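worker-3 :: picked Acyltransferase
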Amino acid sequence: MKVLGLEFAPLFISTRRRLQTVAVMQAVATFLCGGVLCTALLISLLFTRLWPLVMIYAVWYIYDRNTPHSGGRRLQAMRNSKLWTYFRDFFPLKLVKTCDLDPNKNYLFACHPHGVLCVSHFGNFATEATGFSKLFPGIDPHLIVLDGHFQFPLYRDYIMGYGICGCNKNSLEYILKSKGQGNAACIAVGGALEALEAHPAHFTLNLAHKKGFIKSAIRTGASIVPVFSFGENEVYTQVSNPVGSRVRRLQTFLTTYLGFSPPLFHGRGVFNYTFGFLPYRRPITTVVGEPLEVKQNPDPSNEEINELHIRYVSALQNLFEANKKEFGVSEFHHLKFI
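worker-3 :: C-alpha coordinates ->
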Protein backbone atom coordinates (compact mmCIF):
# COMPACT_ATOMS: atom_id res chain seq x y z
CA MET A 1 0.00 0.00 0.00
CA LYS A 2 1.36 3.41 -0.99
CA VAL A 3 0.55 6.65 0.83
CA LEU A 4 2.18 9.97 -0.09
CA GLY A 5 4.91 8.13 -1.99
CA LEU A 6 5.72 5.73 0.84
CA GLU A 7 5.20 2.01 0.34
CA PHE A 8 4.01 0.62 3.65
CA ALA A 9 4.57 -2.92 4.86
CA PRO A 10 1.50 -5.19 5.12
CA LEU A 11 -0.26 -5.05 8.47
CA PHE A 12 -0.27 -8.82 8.83
CA ILE A 13 3.01 -10.63 8.17
CA SER A 14 4.62 -13.63 9.83
CA THR A 15 6.07 -13.39 13.31
CA ARG A 16 9.38 -14.65 11.97
CA ARG A 17 9.69 -11.72 9.57
CA ARG A 18 8.82 -9.33 12.37
CA LEU A 19 11.58 -10.84 14.49
CA GLN A 20 14.02 -10.51 11.61
CA THR A 21 13.21 -6.81 11.36
CA VAL A 22 13.62 -6.34 15.13
CA ALA A 23 17.00 -8.11 15.07
CA VAL A 24 18.33 -5.86 12.31
CA MET A 25 16.77 -2.76 13.88
CA GLN A 26 18.57 -3.32 17.19
CA ALA A 27 21.88 -4.02 15.41
CA VAL A 28 21.72 -0.83 13.35
CA ALA A 29 20.51 1.28 16.30
CA THR A 30 23.28 -0.08 18.50
CA PHE A 31 25.93 0.68 15.89
CA LEU A 32 24.67 4.21 15.18
CA CYS A 33 23.64 5.29 18.69
CA GLY A 34 24.95 2.75 21.21
CA GLY A 35 28.12 4.59 22.18
CA VAL A 36 26.41 7.94 22.72
CA LEU A 37 23.53 6.41 24.68
CA CYS A 38 25.85 4.43 26.97
CA THR A 39 27.89 7.55 27.68
CA ALA A 40 24.74 9.57 28.40
CA LEU A 41 23.52 6.84 30.76
CA LEU A 42 26.68 6.93 32.85
CA ILE A 43 26.66 10.73 33.00
CA SER A 44 23.04 10.72 34.17
CA LEU A 45 23.84 8.14 36.87
CA LEU A 46 26.42 10.55 38.32
CA PHE A 47 23.49 12.63 39.60
CA THR A 48 21.79 9.76 41.37
CA ARG A 49 22.50 7.54 44.37
CA LEU A 50 24.21 5.13 41.96
CA TRP A 51 27.13 7.46 41.35
CA PRO A 52 29.59 5.14 43.18
CA LEU A 53 28.97 2.52 40.49
CA VAL A 54 30.07 5.03 37.87
CA MET A 55 33.28 5.67 39.81
CA ILE A 56 33.96 1.93 40.07
CA TYR A 57 33.39 1.56 36.34
CA ALA A 58 35.72 4.49 35.64
CA VAL A 59 38.51 2.68 37.50
CA TRP A 60 37.74 -0.48 35.51
CA TYR A 61 37.71 1.50 32.26
CA ILE A 62 41.23 2.81 32.92
CA TYR A 63 42.52 -0.57 34.08
CA ASP A 64 41.02 -2.33 31.06
CA ARG A 65 41.91 0.28 28.43
CA ASN A 66 44.37 -1.95 26.52
CA THR A 67 42.12 -5.00 26.19
CA PRO A 68 40.72 -3.99 22.75
CA HIS A 69 44.31 -4.15 21.46
CA SER A 70 45.25 -7.42 23.15
CA GLY A 71 42.75 -9.88 21.74
CA GLY A 72 39.55 -8.46 23.23
CA ARG A 73 37.22 -10.40 25.50
CA ARG A 74 35.03 -12.84 23.57
CA LEU A 75 31.82 -14.22 25.12
CA GLN A 76 30.72 -17.14 23.00
CA ALA A 77 27.15 -16.99 24.31
CA MET A 78 26.76 -13.54 22.74
CA ARG A 79 28.07 -14.76 19.39
CA ASN A 80 25.72 -17.77 19.49
CA SER A 81 22.59 -15.79 20.36
CA LYS A 82 19.41 -16.74 18.47
CA LEU A 83 19.03 -13.05 17.70
CA TRP A 84 21.69 -13.31 15.00
CA THR A 85 19.91 -16.09 13.12
CA TYR A 86 17.04 -13.66 12.61
CA PHE A 87 19.58 -11.01 11.55
CA ARG A 88 21.03 -13.49 9.00
CA ASP A 89 17.64 -14.47 7.60
CA PHE A 90 16.53 -10.86 7.12
CA PHE A 91 18.68 -10.43 3.98
CA PRO A 92 19.51 -13.41 3.86
CA LEU A 93 23.27 -13.49 4.59
CA LYS A 94 25.39 -16.46 3.57
CA LEU A 95 29.07 -17.39 4.08
CA VAL A 96 30.79 -19.53 1.43
CA LYS A 97 34.25 -21.10 1.72
CA THR A 98 36.39 -22.12 -1.23
CA CYS A 99 38.95 -24.17 0.71
CA ASP A 100 39.80 -25.38 4.19
CA LEU A 101 42.00 -23.34 6.52
CA ASP A 102 44.69 -24.92 8.69
CA PRO A 103 43.92 -24.22 12.39
CA ASN A 104 47.66 -24.33 13.11
CA LYS A 105 48.16 -21.09 11.21
CA ASN A 106 46.98 -17.49 11.58
CA TYR A 107 45.13 -15.51 8.93
CA LEU A 108 44.40 -11.93 7.98
CA PHE A 109 40.98 -11.80 6.33
CA ALA A 110 40.95 -8.77 4.01
CA CYS A 111 37.24 -7.99 3.58
CA HIS A 112 35.67 -6.12 0.65
CA PRO A 113 33.70 -4.01 0.05
CA HIS A 114 33.36 -1.88 3.17
CA GLY A 115 29.74 -0.99 2.41
CA VAL A 116 27.87 1.69 4.33
CA LEU A 117 27.73 -0.17 7.67
CA CYS A 118 29.80 -3.36 7.12
CA VAL A 119 26.65 -5.46 7.50
CA SER A 120 28.09 -8.72 6.19
CA HIS A 121 31.41 -8.42 8.00
CA PHE A 122 29.65 -8.08 11.34
CA GLY A 123 27.21 -10.92 10.67
CA ASN A 124 29.89 -13.31 9.42
CA PHE A 125 32.80 -12.63 11.77
CA ALA A 126 31.33 -11.15 14.97
CA THR A 127 28.55 -13.71 15.28
CA GLU A 128 28.01 -17.39 14.49
CA ALA A 129 24.89 -16.65 12.43
CA THR A 130 26.45 -17.95 9.21
CA GLY A 131 28.32 -20.81 10.88
CA PHE A 132 31.90 -19.56 10.77
CA SER A 133 33.14 -22.08 13.37
CA LYS A 134 31.56 -24.97 11.49
CA LEU A 135 33.01 -23.90 8.16
CA PHE A 136 36.45 -23.12 9.60
CA PRO A 137 36.89 -25.28 12.73
CA GLY A 138 39.73 -24.26 15.00
CA ILE A 139 39.84 -20.65 13.71
CA ASP A 140 38.81 -17.81 16.05
CA PRO A 141 37.71 -14.70 14.09
CA HIS A 142 38.30 -11.19 15.45
CA LEU A 143 36.46 -8.40 13.64
CA ILE A 144 38.66 -5.30 13.53
CA VAL A 145 36.95 -1.89 13.85
CA LEU A 146 37.97 1.73 14.34
CA ASP A 147 39.53 2.51 17.71
CA GLY A 148 36.93 5.23 18.27
CA HIS A 149 34.32 2.60 19.12
CA PHE A 150 36.28 1.70 22.26
CA GLN A 151 36.25 5.22 23.65
CA PHE A 152 32.60 4.87 24.67
CA PRO A 153 32.08 3.34 28.13
CA LEU A 154 29.91 0.21 28.41
CA TYR A 155 29.54 0.10 24.63
CA ARG A 156 33.18 -0.96 24.36
CA ASP A 157 32.55 -3.89 26.71
CA TYR A 158 29.47 -4.89 24.74
CA ILE A 159 31.20 -5.07 21.35
CA MET A 160 34.24 -6.84 22.78
CA GLY A 161 31.90 -9.65 23.76
CA TYR A 162 31.61 -10.44 20.06
CA GLY A 163 35.37 -10.78 19.68
CA ILE A 164 35.67 -7.29 18.16
CA CYS A 165 39.08 -5.61 18.55
CA GLY A 166 40.65 -2.24 17.83
CA CYS A 167 42.36 -1.30 14.58
CA ASN A 168 46.04 -0.54 14.95
CA LYS A 169 49.36 -2.26 14.37
CA ASN A 170 49.66 -3.54 17.94
CA SER A 171 46.18 -5.06 17.88
CA LEU A 172 46.75 -6.87 14.58
CA GLU A 173 50.13 -8.18 15.60
CA TYR A 174 48.85 -9.41 18.97
CA ILE A 175 46.11 -11.44 17.28
CA LEU A 176 48.32 -12.73 14.48
CA LYS A 177 51.49 -13.38 16.47
CA SER A 178 51.21 -13.23 20.26
CA LYS A 179 47.84 -14.92 20.77
CA GLY A 180 48.94 -18.29 19.44
CA GLN A 181 47.72 -20.22 16.41
CA GLY A 182 44.25 -20.54 14.92
CA ASN A 183 43.34 -16.82 14.88
CA ALA A 184 41.96 -14.63 12.12
CA ALA A 185 41.96 -10.82 12.11
CA CYS A 186 39.06 -9.72 9.88
CA ILE A 187 39.41 -6.17 8.59
CA ALA A 188 37.60 -4.08 5.98
CA VAL A 189 40.82 -2.76 4.50
CA GLY A 190 39.14 -0.09 2.34
CA GLY A 191 38.25 1.87 5.46
CA ALA A 192 36.17 4.98 5.80
CA LEU A 193 36.85 6.37 2.32
CA GLU A 194 35.62 3.16 0.69
CA ALA A 195 32.28 3.58 2.46
CA LEU A 196 31.76 6.68 0.32
CA GLU A 197 31.94 4.46 -2.77
CA ALA A 198 29.21 2.11 -1.52
CA HIS A 199 26.62 2.46 -4.26
CA PRO A 200 24.52 -0.38 -5.69
CA ALA A 201 26.19 -2.09 -8.68
CA HIS A 202 29.45 -0.22 -8.00
CA PHE A 203 32.64 -2.14 -7.28
CA THR A 204 35.18 0.58 -6.48
CA LEU A 205 37.65 -0.41 -3.77
CA ASN A 206 40.04 1.82 -1.84
CA LEU A 207 42.97 -0.55 -2.24
CA ALA A 208 45.53 0.87 -4.65
CA HIS A 209 47.54 2.51 -1.86
CA LYS A 210 46.38 0.41 1.11
CA LYS A 211 49.45 -1.53 2.19
CA GLY A 212 49.41 -1.40 5.99
CA PHE A 213 47.61 -4.75 6.20
CA ILE A 214 50.20 -6.22 3.81
CA LYS A 215 53.02 -5.07 6.07
CA SER A 216 51.32 -6.54 9.16
CA ALA A 217 50.90 -9.88 7.38
CA ILE A 218 54.60 -10.00 6.48
CA ARG A 219 55.71 -8.97 9.97
CA THR A 220 53.63 -11.74 11.55
CA GLY A 221 53.82 -14.36 8.80
CA ALA A 222 50.00 -14.59 8.68
CA SER A 223 48.44 -15.78 5.43
CA ILE A 224 46.22 -13.21 3.70
CA VAL A 225 42.72 -14.37 2.75
CA PRO A 226 40.73 -12.34 0.17
CA VAL A 227 37.06 -12.00 1.12
CA PHE A 228 34.35 -10.47 -1.05
CA SER A 229 30.72 -9.86 -0.09
CA PHE A 230 28.44 -9.83 -3.12
CA GLY A 231 25.44 -7.65 -2.27
CA GLU A 232 27.02 -5.58 0.53
CA ASN A 233 26.66 -2.39 -1.50
CA GLU A 234 23.06 -3.17 -2.43
CA VAL A 235 21.46 -2.96 1.01
CA TYR A 236 21.54 0.85 1.24
CA THR A 237 21.07 3.73 -1.19
CA GLN A 238 23.62 6.51 -0.85
CA VAL A 239 23.21 10.09 -2.05
CA SER A 240 25.07 10.72 -5.32
CA ASN A 241 28.57 11.92 -4.41
CA PRO A 242 30.89 11.68 -7.42
CA VAL A 243 34.54 12.58 -6.89
CA GLY A 244 34.93 16.36 -7.16
CA SER A 245 31.35 17.16 -6.14
CA ARG A 246 30.64 19.44 -3.18
CA VAL A 247 29.14 16.55 -1.24
CA ARG A 248 32.24 14.39 -1.75
CA ARG A 249 34.64 17.22 -0.88
CA LEU A 250 32.77 17.82 2.38
CA GLN A 251 32.68 14.09 3.17
CA THR A 252 36.39 13.72 2.48
CA PHE A 253 37.16 16.72 4.68
CA LEU A 254 35.09 15.33 7.55
CA THR A 255 36.62 11.86 7.14
CA THR A 256 40.11 13.34 7.38
CA TYR A 257 39.38 15.13 10.65
CA LEU A 258 36.86 12.79 12.27
CA GLY A 259 38.49 9.47 11.36
CA PHE A 260 35.24 8.00 10.06
CA SER A 261 33.18 8.72 6.95
CA PRO A 262 29.73 10.36 7.03
CA PRO A 263 27.88 8.74 4.10
CA LEU A 264 24.46 10.21 3.36
CA PHE A 265 22.33 7.13 2.96
CA HIS A 266 18.92 5.62 3.47
CA GLY A 267 17.31 2.22 3.35
CA ARG A 268 13.86 1.14 4.42
CA GLY A 269 11.91 1.83 7.59
CA VAL A 270 10.40 -0.46 10.19
CA PHE A 271 6.87 -0.10 8.76
CA ASN A 272 7.65 1.06 5.21
CA TYR A 273 9.82 -0.09 2.34
CA THR A 274 10.73 3.35 1.01
CA PHE A 275 12.76 5.32 3.54
CA GLY A 276 14.54 4.71 6.83
CA PHE A 277 17.80 3.52 8.35
CA LEU A 278 17.21 -0.21 8.12
CA PRO A 279 18.92 -2.04 5.23
CA TYR A 280 16.85 -3.42 2.39
CA ARG A 281 16.07 -7.13 2.29
CA ARG A 282 18.58 -8.05 -0.37
CA PRO A 283 20.77 -11.16 -0.38
CA ILE A 284 24.43 -10.92 0.60
CA THR A 285 26.84 -13.77 -0.09
CA THR A 286 30.34 -13.57 1.35
CA VAL A 287 32.94 -15.69 -0.44
CA VAL A 288 36.16 -16.55 1.43
CA GLY A 289 39.00 -17.17 -1.01
CA GLU A 290 42.17 -19.22 -0.81
CA PRO A 291 44.91 -17.92 1.50
CA LEU A 292 48.10 -16.41 0.13
CA GLU A 293 51.08 -17.84 1.96
CA VAL A 294 53.36 -15.15 3.41
CA LYS A 295 57.02 -15.45 4.37
CA GLN A 296 57.59 -13.80 7.74
CA ASN A 297 59.97 -10.87 7.95
CA PRO A 298 59.92 -8.56 11.01
CA ASP A 299 61.27 -5.71 8.90
CA PRO A 300 59.91 -6.05 5.35
CA SER A 301 61.31 -3.93 2.54
CA ASN A 302 59.16 -1.81 0.25
CA GLU A 303 59.86 -4.30 -2.54
CA GLU A 304 58.45 -7.18 -0.45
CA ILE A 305 55.36 -5.16 0.48
CA ASN A 306 54.72 -4.08 -3.11
CA GLU A 307 55.21 -7.61 -4.46
CA LEU A 308 52.73 -9.11 -2.00
CA HIS A 309 50.29 -6.27 -2.65
CA ILE A 310 50.34 -7.07 -6.37
CA ARG A 311 49.78 -10.76 -5.61
CA TYR A 312 46.88 -9.90 -3.32
CA VAL A 313 45.13 -7.58 -5.79
CA SER A 314 45.41 -10.27 -8.47
CA ALA A 315 43.97 -12.93 -6.11
CA LEU A 316 41.06 -10.64 -5.18
CA GLN A 317 40.30 -9.94 -8.84
CA ASN A 318 40.32 -13.65 -9.60
CA LEU A 319 37.95 -14.33 -6.68
CA PHE A 320 35.54 -11.65 -7.88
CA GLU A 321 35.59 -12.74 -11.52
CA ALA A 322 35.18 -16.43 -10.66
CA ASN A 323 32.06 -15.83 -8.55
CA LYS A 324 30.35 -12.70 -9.88
CA LYS A 325 28.05 -14.40 -12.38
CA GLU A 326 26.70 -16.83 -9.77
CA PHE A 327 25.75 -13.95 -7.46
CA GLY A 328 24.05 -11.69 -9.95
CA VAL A 329 26.86 -9.39 -11.11
CA SER A 330 26.96 -8.52 -14.80
CA GLU A 331 29.87 -9.81 -16.85
CA PHE A 332 30.57 -6.19 -17.75
CA HIS A 333 31.31 -5.21 -14.16
CA HIS A 334 34.89 -5.42 -12.89
CA LEU A 335 36.68 -4.26 -9.79
CA LYS A 336 38.07 -0.73 -9.85
CA PHE A 337 40.86 0.31 -7.49
CA ILE A 338 41.49 3.84 -6.22
